[in-house]
Amino acid sequence: MTTPTTPLTPAAAGYEAYFQDCPAVALLSAISNRWVSLVLCVLGAKGQLRYGQIGREIPAVSQKMLTQTLRTLERDGIVSRTVTPTIPPRVDYDLTPLGRSLYYLLSGVRDWAWENIEDVNDARKRYDQEHTATRP
Prior knowledge:
By secondary structure, this protein is mainly α. The chain is about 60% helix and about 10% strand. The protein is built from 5 helices and 3 strands, in the order ααβααββα. It has a 3-stranded antiparallel β-sheet. It is globular, with a radius of gyration of 20 Å. The protein starts with about 20 loop residues before the first helix and ends with a helix. About 10% of the residues are buried.
């Protein structure tokens, strides 16, 4: 008789989530980068895109940062890069299944930000007014 296996929790796998040298902390730091979030949301919403199309969707990102972000995401297995041998070569980027699972989480955070930005701005104004008035 076999019993179903359950995935290990981070602690059971030997990871200490709040220690600096934990691999999960390093991954969390990498995926919480603003360019990573924006690239994931663009590819998740639009599907497969070429480099220039991604850049046009995120006009604030520099070529250097976009290239670096896409390389990191490809290395982490979150984005796939497909080269079609044409002249000039065509390069397309898309989310992998792993990337799509992360996109669903990040798009929820993005949606929360869109829905709550006014409340956050109001809270910031109140905080700044209260703390500016009480400090010399």
